[in-house]
Amino acid sequence: MNALVSVIMPAKNTAEFIRFSIDSVLNQTYQHFELIIIDDGSDDDTRNIINRYDDKRIKVIDGESKGISAAFNLGLNNANGEYLCRCDSDDIFPSDRLEIQVACLNKKTECIAVCGSFTSIDLKGRHIIQYHKETPSRTINDEFSCANVITHFGTFLCRTSVLKEINGCRLFFITAEDIDLQLRLSEKGSIYFMSQNFYHYRLHKLSITHTQSVSHKKFFEELAKECHLQRLAGQKDIVESGEAIHLSYDDKKFENSSNHIYNLLTGESWYWHDKRNKRMAIKSALRLFSIAPMRLQTWKNLVLIVLKPYS
């Protein structure tokens, strides 16, 4: 019998994108799933869009407006599936994602989770860059043992029992909760990385990546890694111990979404140039004109991509 997959979708004020997220789950080639949407206090049209769907596999739960970690945990507590994954309400699943990952976990009974590569997309859903596309398929616990997190939690399909055993996300982590969760999962068993692309992560001005300051994100990411290394050393981590933690970050410097995408596309153009794929290199370079057509660097990058010989 096919394993039931629980897909958790925390949602708050994503009316512009949520139908694409829901459709990407409903259109999976693997159809034995439940979609648990946690509406975490939306005050736009998000709930109305959700209510237009007439599908018995969709379960809608009211959140308590306590953030993505609490919303995820609420979904986890209501999950009935043997396997579980998360799809944020502005992101997208590739259509064969569940089919491939379920088959992998069914086969690799020693693994507690499978994950993979992911792609960033822009406001209109256009591809920007695929991360770790050349990373070979393998278990990645060695990376985790060094507190090295190489992919997005959105790519994970986990055994639900293990997520429940570790009580899901820790509410202390108001950001980097996914990094903390990955590291804690890795302490429970083998995690297998597949080279396929399993997640489309949307970059836009209201995404979490761009609504939290750079130092704010870095502080919690580094704390999650420090806690992991403390646990590996046989200690209680600083969050578990209840010690006072000095929150040393400022909220002044934010990463602009347009500049972020601009820099990613610039890197992507040179990636394809190094791969001797002139067509893809030029295509990426030309997309910079949709972001900053008058910027000198935009023109300079295109000219260099066209004229520079391969090394």
Largest sheet: 9 strands, mixed
Tally of individual helices: 13
CATH structural class of the largest domain: Alpha Beta
Query: What is the domain tally?
Result: 2
What proportion of the residues is helical, as a percent range? Answer: 25-40%
Q: Characterize the overall form.
A: globular
Q: What share of the residues does DSSP label as strand, in percent? A: 15-25%
Q: What is the averaged pLDDT score?
A: 90
CATH architecture of the largest domain: Alpha-Beta Complex
The string of secondary-structure elements, in order, is EHEHEHEHEEEHEHHEHHHHHH
Structural class: alpha/beta
CATH topology of the largest domain: Spore Coat Polysaccharide Biosynthesis Protein SpsA, Chain A
Roughly how many Å is the radius of gyration? Answer: 20 Å
The count of strands amounts to 9
Q: Report the end-to-end length measured between terminal Cα atoms.
A: 53 Å
Task: Find the CATH superfamily of the largest domain.
Answer: Spore Coat Polysaccharide Biosynthesis Protein SpsA, Chain A
Low-confidence stretches: none
Summarize the structure in words.
This protein is α/β, with parallel strands linked by helices. The protein folds into 2 domains: 5-210, Spore Coat Polysaccharide Biosynthesis Protein SpsA, Chain A, CATH 3.90.550; 257-307. The protein is 40% helix and 18% strand. The protein has helices spanning 18-26, 46-51, 68-77, 97-107, 141-145, 160-165, 177-186, 208-211, 214-232, 238-241, 257-274, 278-287, 296-307; strands at 5-11, 33-39, 58-62, 83-86, 111-121, 127-131, 138-139, 157-159, 190-202. Strands 1, 2, 3, 4, 5, 6, 7, 8 and 9 form a 9-stranded mixed sheet that branches. Helix 12 runs antiparallel to helix 13. The longest helix has 19 residues, at 214-232. The chain starts with a strand and ends with a helix.
